[in-house]
Fold this sequence. Notes:
By secondary structure, the protein is α+β, with helices and mostly antiparallel strands. It has one domain: Histidine kinase-like ATPase, C-terminal domain (Heat Shock Protein 90), CATH 3.30.565. Helix content is 33%, strand content 33%. The two termini are 24 Å apart.
Amino acid sequence: GAEQAEGSLAESLxxxxxxxxxxxxxxxxxxxxxxxxGVVRARHEALNQVWTNLxxxxxxxxxxxxxxxxxxxxxxxxVEVRVADTGGGIAPEALxxxxxxxxxxxxxxxxxxxxxxxxRDIVEQHxxxxxxxxxxxxxxxxxxxPDAEREAA
Length: 153
């Protein structure tokens, strides 16, 4: 349930990518840039919802072709997870609202719009933060989570 446990974010991401394996179209290349297992103390079931959402959004942004890059690295007293796509980017007017509940850029019936709002809530409950960089060549979501050791100190 909601218990915190130590676990590897890289393993969690691999699990999500495995679940999505059949939905990843032939024209999509998946690149893993895992520099670190990314062990953090967290509610990993909740974080898996975040990774699932980010991977799902990235795949939708690209359609039939592109590159999905998933990265895990140590960063500033914690771990940073990156999920990047080579889709068309997020429109500037949408960008400031993507974390609002019920906001969606998807066609009717394709999404509830709860995705990124819930992602941000989950990340912030873990003392982390979620940031986005976007442009015409794609979008990169960066999730930073504090280190297991630091929190225990």
